[in-house]
Amino acid sequence: MELREKAKQLLESGDVKAVLGFEPGTGGVRRPAFARSAAQAEKLVFDGEQNLASYVTHKEVKRLGRLALVARPDTLRALLQLMGERQLKEGDVLPLVLEDGQVRELTDAQAIEEYLALTAKELPAQDRELLERLGGMTRQERWDFWQKELSRCIKCYACRSSCPMCYCEHCTMDCNRPQWVPVPSHALGNLEYHMVRAMHLAGRCVECGDCGRACPVGIPIHLLTFNAEESVHAQFGQRAGASAKLDYAMSTFRPDDKETFIR
Predict the structure, then answer these.
(1) Would you list the domain boundaries of the chain?
(2) Which run of H or E residues covers position 102?
(3) For residues 243 and 113, is the Cβ–Cβ distance under 8 A?
(4) Minimal CA–CA distance to 143: which of 187, 183, 189?
(5) Cis previous bond, 178, omega within 30
(6) What pLDDT, in 10s, does the model give residues 205-239?
(7) Which residues pair with 34 in a beta bridge?
(8) pLDDT tens digits for 142-186?
(9) Is the CB of residue 19 less than 8 Å from the CB of residue 71?
């Protein structure tokens, strides 16, 4: 397999210290796997759903040294966004993409940007349909929808843990001196948690959908961040993860910024 041969080559040459991909897991589900030797590379496969960029900001992963990882388009967008937010240095991570049956290395930010420029950016049809349905609701209907959905939240924070852009070492949600957001899983605490998270990801969400897939009770929580991202794109013409030098919209100000979002 091309990926395994490429991983062996990179590890044996010393170009990288570890390769992050997927391996077969229980129930036919792919799970993330780190290969640090040619022997371990034998288990790697390309086809997994998770956005592996969520690992690259972890201290224990950074300590491994230069990392190569299997990258889908949303993984590449996350890497560029992390570079733009100065959480990742260019060259610390080597993305591997599958192109025409061959494994290709994207050696720098420019190569990633050029690759993404040729890749169509589209939301999954099911998510697009749900967003359109929500957009067609009245304000009260949307409120009722999210009140019902968020009432099922158990505050496990799987959505936060799975998100490549939730990299803060000390999250506001964990702060108890003072305690900004109620910890218990109740109507107010759940609403505040998810609204704060959605606002923190506005203009930064790369729309991988991992937060929704990670939810153990099936809340389509990714629709909140998807909607915030689409709103930023509509208002400012900016996409998260389009450039390693792009400051996201909620952190910058220009005198000519539109103010139509203020109602």
Answers:
(1) 2-117, 125-251
(2) strand 102-105
(3) yes
(4) 187
(5) yes
(6) 999 999 999 999 999 999 999 999 988 888 888 88
(7) 20
(8) 999 999 999 999 999 999 999 999 998 888 777 777 777 777 788
(9) no
